[in-house]
């Protein structure tokens, strides 16, 4: 009787699989943005561009005109006509006059919309019952029912 040799499969290595390449990880991260709520999604996609442009203009203005002058132009204290160089002062002034208030208004709009939606989720019959209870006069203290 002969001996039968059986070869066992080699066990898999205990090393983890290789990490995805950077481009694939970035693509996965960017695709997850749709899972965010409305405000984080807006801040990540639309508002990030506005903030990046304003920061870039402020840094350029700070380097070219000085940080104090760039700040005064951004918040509207100084006229861009009085700053030098004017080609850098006007975009910074317009960003401070239009883009930053639009960013703040957009953020406030999303926050207010979220609060309104929370209150709209109440049942209409419950709200009507509460309003009817508010319109009824309070019971008299001496009506004899006590």
Give a verbal description of the structure.
The protein is mostly helical. The protein has a domain at 36-133. It has helices spanning 22-31, 38-65, 67-75, 86-120, 124-135. Helix 2 packs across helix 3 (67-75), helix 2 packs antiparallel against helix 4 (86-120) and helix 3 packs across helix 4 (86-120). 10% of the residues are buried.
Q: Characteristics of this structure?
A:
146 residues; flat; mainly alpha
Provide a quick synopsis of the model.
This protein is mainly α. Helices cover 64% and strands 0% of the residues. It contains five helices and no strands.
Describe the protein's topology.
Blueprint: H1 22-31, H2 38-65, H3 67-75, H4 86-120, H5 124-135
Helix pairs in contact: 2-3, 2-4, 3-4
**Largest sheet features:** none
Q: What is the share of helical residues? A: 55-70%
Rg value = 32 Å
Name the average pLDDT: 84
What string, H for helix and E for strand, traces the elements in order?
Answer: HHHHH
- Structural category: mainly alpha
């Amino acid at each position: 009787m002969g001996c039968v040799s059986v070869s066992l499969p080699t066990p898999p290595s205990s090393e983890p699989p290789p990490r995805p390449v950077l481009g694939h990880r970035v693509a996965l991260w960017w695709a997850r943005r749709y899972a965010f709520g409305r405000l984080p999604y807006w801040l990540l996609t639309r508002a990030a561009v506005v903030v990046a442009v304003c920061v870039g203009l402020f840094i350029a203005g700070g380097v070219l005109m000085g940080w104090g002058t760039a700040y005064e132009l951004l918040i509207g204290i100084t006229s861009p006509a009085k700053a030098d160089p004017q080609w850098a002062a006007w975009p910074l002034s317009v960003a401070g006059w239009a883009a930053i208030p639009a960013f703040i208004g957009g953020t406030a709009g999303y926050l207010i919309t979220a609060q309104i939606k929370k209150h709209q989720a109440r049942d209409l019959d419950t709200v009507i019952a509460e309003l009817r209870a508010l319109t009824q006069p309070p019971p008299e203290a001496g009506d004899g029912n006590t």
